[in-house]
From TrEMBL:
Name used for this protein in its record: UMP-CMP kinase
Major site of localization recorded for this protein: cytoplasm
Record note on domains: Consists of three domains, a large central CORE domain and two small peripheral domains, NMPbind and LID, which undergo movements during catalysis. The LID domain closes over the site of phosphoryl transfer upon ATP binding. Assembling and dissambling the active center during each catalytic cycle provides an effective means to prevent ATP hydrolysis.
EC top class named in words: transferase
EC number of the protein: 2.7.4.14, 2.7.4.6
Amino acid sequence: SPTMKPQVVFVLGGPGAGKGTQCSRIVEKYNYTHLSAGDLLREERAREGSEYGQLIATYIKEGKIVPVEITISLLRKAMEETMQKDEQKFRFLIDGFPRNEDNLQGWNKVMDNNADVKFVLFFDCSIEVCINRCLERGKNSGRTDDNRESLNKRIQTYLQSTRPIIELYQKHGKVCTIDASRSVDEVFADVKAILDKEG
Ligand code: UP5
Ligand code: MG
């Protein structure tokens, strides 16, 4: 049978909004593969012989957005590998991407014809909630960016670069917004309602 075109849901929201947590819950119940752009970048940072390791390390610590060529190639490879192993696995949650204009342009250039973006799941919560969750996690996450200094930069990048991307999708009627300040179960109840309706 012909290989299906990948069906993509972008998962966005501030640092610590709960994107990864909710994606894990979704994968347990729905036929989606979770690809976190941040996780893929952290893996690439750790990969022996990576030519981008140092660049990625610096960008992450500074809360800056890595040039899209790098992120897209990691996402594309992960999608291709998933579909090669099991052609039924063509539904993807792409978590933490696209975060800025450069990301969006890179996606449109490389992936627009090769994947369908169904909608954006936007986990919305206050900056205070974002900061508190990341600082709490930072006690034992080992993440180089879960400290106050990096967090301030991540928040600034989110407000300046990522919010406008969410607003752009909103103008096209493609955003499902979820109040992410509540408990994991309450947030997931809304996620389920959306996925049961939107597929
Ligand atoms: N938690 C989760 N949900 C909760 C709830 N409802 N109530 C109470 N606590 C809750 O959750 C964060 C913490 O909060 C956890 O301890 C969790 O238990 C708790 P998590 O699910 O991890 O939130 P998430 O939104 O995934 O937070 P994360 O820190 O991963 O978000 P970021 O967007 O900041 O990080 P990401 O890994 O996506 O990106 C990191 C960096 O990589 C970026 O800053 C950037 O430098 C780089 N990057 C790029 O350059 N390009 C990309 O495309 C992607 C990343
Ligand atoms: Mg995450």
